[in-house]
Amino acid sequence: MTGKSGSRQPATPADDSKSQDLEPFRVRPDGAALRTNQGVKIADNQNTLRAGPRGPSLLEDFIMREKITHFDHERIPERIVHARGSAAHGVFQLYESMSKYTKAAFLQDPIVQTPVYVRFSTVQGPRGSADTVRDVRGFAVKFYTQEGNYDLVGNNMPVFFIQDAIKFPDFVHAVKPEAPNEMPTGGSAHDTFWDFVSLVPESAHMVLWTMSDRAIPRSLRTMEGFGVHTFRFVNAAGKARFVKFHWRPVLGSYSLLWDEAQKLAGKDPDFHRRDLWEAIERSDFPEYELGVQIVEEQDENSFGFDLLDPTKLIPEELVPVKIIGKMTLNRNPDNFFAETEQVAFHPGHIVPGIDFSNDPLLQGRLFSYTDTQISRLGGPNFHEIPINRPVCPFHNNQRDAMHRQVINVGQASYEPNSLSGGWPKETGPAASDGGFESYPERIDGAKIRVRSDSFADHFSQAALFYRSMSEVEQEHISAAYQFELGKVTQPAIRERVVNEILASFDAGLAAKVAAGLGLPAPRKGKVPPVSKPQTSPALSLLNRVKPGIKTCKIALLAAPGADAASITKLQHALRGEGATPLLIAPSFAAIDALQPDATIAGMPSIMFDAVIVCGGEAGAKTLAQSGDARHFVLEAFKHLKAIAALGAGRDVLAAAQLPDHADGVATGDDSQSAEVLKTFIAAVEQHRVWSRAALAQTVPA
Ligand code: HDE
């Protein structure tokens, strides 16, 4: 890897020794004796000190006491929201200088690599909840820049549920597990959530996003990210422009099906975490491009909605997303607690050249994030925890408090002073001085508690989003509302969602959901909201598919007696395309010389993107007679995955009673394997065989 980089960045995992030198806090015990926290070597780590072999333990045993005491305090409070997360190290590099727009040092020079730490999260559930629940995902990036840490603390959806921070505790209390019984874990399908959102129409747009496939991503590696709020870029001349941030996965964006997501939550609650970890271990480094939508200050009021309203997005058809750089996640953390649990993000961690807007949600966040770390991380010195330390030197006159790490030398801890030569001194705002200066926006207004009239439209962008979905995506949205409202026990809440919310932006959706729930058809007569543009194709995930099958997980279903030579050939061909083929068999018994990677029970079809049933008479016969193997292909078929069957492998599809000649099913003799593979790969590339959706519903689960 080329380029200048900050000290946090080992270029590749092989560079770990370098990272240890550069980060003295990253400790490895290789060759070291076991010692107490006071440095005393421990001779026996197996037995407590006791009075005789069968006698009572002695309080005197400082070694046992120290160990147990520390253990007793190993947990810290989990995050009130976004408790469940996983993270990775990486680097960010620009494609072109952004100096025209911002003076931020890390956005000037395409040769500079800025180290990053990125934490993805779900929002509702506790630390131990499942990854694949229907929920918003956090997408928080800490850039360790040479001018200080910059945190872009975003989500995988570009809007939010509420417009004003003062409503956040209400919203979170409503979505979190209910007070009397702490249910449900990891989901919003319950009365209090739907009660709140049915009474707060500003949530309509975001709730629609969470009922869409965006809320069940296939992988954290293929998930978009958004800064949500409008921010400001400020250049060296002091000129400001509004900016919205986007992260675009290079592999494209894909989602699970709801049935898959639910099954995965039981069969592998760590599905997303594992996928991210394994991809990085395999050196399939996740990549995301950074995009910006830039709006000139004079265009602020030209959109028909308010740029400060976080329930609105700027359609890309109005302001294109300019791709400016790429982030590559290239190293897994060494220690989950020290890094992922202790990392402290804050939208207020900004650097010169980036500034806030008056979005009232953002303004409230600027208070909340430091405050929450003080109780979560035990005091105001959390910036000294290794994962949170800036890579540039920093000095100030803040002193003491819980868990202080540095030993501040010198008499003066105030400014101005004459006793320490006046140091540390403030710097000027000029780019060469590097001091942060807030953008001098003119503010002239009365001190009032009001919501601007420009925030009053709650439905036009919900209508825009729904209209922009493909037919299957609209189907999924309608099914999601029916599922969630089906879990609501109070009929009045179900009716309010349909009549007051859905009917306010799409009569068709409202009617469908009402019918599904057995409710009377919604009241007519509401004026459908108008939006500019009428549709935004960029919002449909089906338009986010990228060519290629890189990192797709493909099951090669086989049993002893299968044709090992043909399996090896398939493995080579698929690896050549960048995919990850895994040999899946009824047991770990070898297939000739080939060792299965996992069993059918251990890795069911929901964990794969596609399936090939391998040829070979004896192997295929075993699979055809196995209910589990038949279920494997049947389920893949129902989940609209590409399927191939070679030679006798076709008997397994027949035994599962899959319809003949269905879309996305490639079959042929062993001699036709090259053509079958070509057709199969073309289907995998689409990620789902949507044209099979109707047929798949006729197949038993
Ligand atoms: Fe957060 N949010 N949030 N949030 N948020 C937290 O900070 C808060 C909001 C987001 O991986 C907390 O350290 C308020 C929007 C992410 O560690 C807390 C409001 C967006 C993460 C907090 C919002 C986010 C958090 C809990 C409304 C997308 C996880 C633990 C005014 C742009 C970061 C913590 C990580 C975490 C407050 C709304 C994203 C309590 C008050 C909008 C990704 O401070």
TrEMBL record:
InterPro entries linked to this entry: Catalase, Catalase_AS, Catalase_clade2, Catalase_clade2_helical, Catalase_core, Catalase_haem_BS, Catalase_immune_responsive, Catalase_large_C
Residues covered by the Catalase core domain: 35-423
Give the required cofactors.
Answer: heme
> Region entry Disordered: which residue ranges?
1-34, 417-437
Which enzyme class? oxidoreductase
Asked if the Swiss-Prot or TrEMBL record annotates the protein with the keyword Metal-binding, the reply is yes
Task: Name the catalysed reactions.
Answer: 2 H2O2 = O2 + 2 H2O
Q: What is this protein called?
A: Catalase
Q: Which gene encodes it?
A: katE
